[in-house]
Structure prediction request, 508 residues.
Amino acid sequence: MLRSKRQRISDDDPLARAMEPPPGETFEERQRRLAAEQEAKRVSDAIDEELNRQRISEKKGPKAIKILLLGQSESGKSTTLKNFQLMNSPKVAVILCPKGHNTDPRSLQAFRSERASWRAVIQLNVVQSIHAILDLMSKAHSSVHVASTSPHPPPTSSSSHSTNRLSASHKDYPSITTEHLKLKMRLGPLLQVEAALVKKLLPYGHVQLSGLANPAQSFPIQQEISVNSSAGWKGTFSRLIGRDSCDSSDLIDWSNPDDPGVVLNACAEDMKRLWADPIVKKMMEIEKMRPEEMAGFFLDALDRVTSLHYSPTDDDILRARLKTLGVSEHRFSMKTGPLGSPMSHDWRVFDVGGQRSLRAAWVPYFDDMNAIIFLAPISCFDQVLQEDPTVNRLADSFLLWKSIVSNPLLKKTDLVLFLNKCDILRAKLASGIRLADYIVSYGSRPNDFESASVYLRKKFAVLLKDHSPDRQLYCHFTSVTDTKSTTLILENVQDLLVRDNLKRSALV
Ligand SMILES: Nc1nc2c(ncn2[C@@H]2O[C@H](COP(=O)(O)OP(=O)(O)OP(=O)(O)O)[C@@H](O)[C@H]2O)c(=O)[nH]1
Ligand SMILES: [Mg+2]
Prediction:
């Protein structure tokens, strides 16, 4: 009975039928068949084992190479990160978006979902530059007014931006006219735009008041917004508009009368008038205020950035200023490798906030990094820290570099030094600002970029030699707002780190 049931199953099941011993199999034939089956199983198990081994080793993989970006606030860390983003964007020639806001297909890929958010940041940067100039005008006005009614000169209080500058002790401002006062009034609506833009970004960050409150000025004091770059602020404006698209600038409702761009466009001529005004220029000169060297400077592109259909280019995004709060991690998979045989590597780049109060948050990341890119803005020799106006920015960079190179947790970490903002240094020295007036030891050396940059590099090299003598100095002169040169430098750095990584894994 049992037999007949098995017989039925094998009749129904083609696999069972195929596996059945051939009818009338002899003892020798059976032995041969079983041996063949055993061999087939052995081969199959070996294949499974190999596949399993490959899966495990893929999982373990070559470890991601981790880079931590360090440096004081405004040194260019987030801008360097944006360069990594640009390098990592797929270089496809197909333009998927219907509206070609930017002709570089690479850039369409890199920042496309963030463009509307960066537009708002740039608008805020523009408004804040104008705000700073208006503050200065108010200050000059009140100081001239006080001087004309008082036998004593007014005390010198600094404007919001001049707190970042070692300012002149004696201020002899030119008088402003009623035309200036009218201009200031007409620019009033920009303050509402500023408040609205700050409010939109606020849920993702935090507002800091910068500069000193001046009771004589009718404009409120400046606010600087900082965001946690991992907090999703870049989607803020897309979400406000409410839909998803391939390029977030396609989501901007150009006909919305409440769009900040409308007010900026309406105030464009007055902003240009203010920026070109000779009396305002004279005031800025006295105050040593040079907006063109400040973070987020767009006053030389007012026609473009205030146009009704303005959408930021990559260069604009690189120049936009938004202070970082906290630490954020960015993952890239890039083809890099020495000897002309590019391999795909996973890269993790960590961006941090550089302001003094945020530096304690760097330490937990120290023991797990392959490399640190340390940014020192060497153009800042005549500026002070925003968070502590008693400290010179260059002096702060030297101290910070010293503490990084001598930190025992970073003993095995590669250090790459970017002496940044070389474009600003070059322009500053060419305009007659003397390095020797701020660094006495510079002495009578020529006040040109070549001599100054070599001198400053040497200062950083000496600190490394004194505090970490076994380490080699990898140093680059950079202007990280220039993507072309920065891409070459970052490729060079990546090459160095891949080689180093390979060397280390060979030693392990
Ligand atoms: N002209 C010029 N501007 C630069 C350069 N590097 C950075 N900037 C600008 O300087 C401003 C500050 O740069 P960020 O990259 O935001 O500075 P950060 O180090 O991230 O600053 P925190 O986030 O405050 O720590 C931005 O507006 C940049 O566009 C440079 O080499 N040249
Ligand atoms: Mg930053």
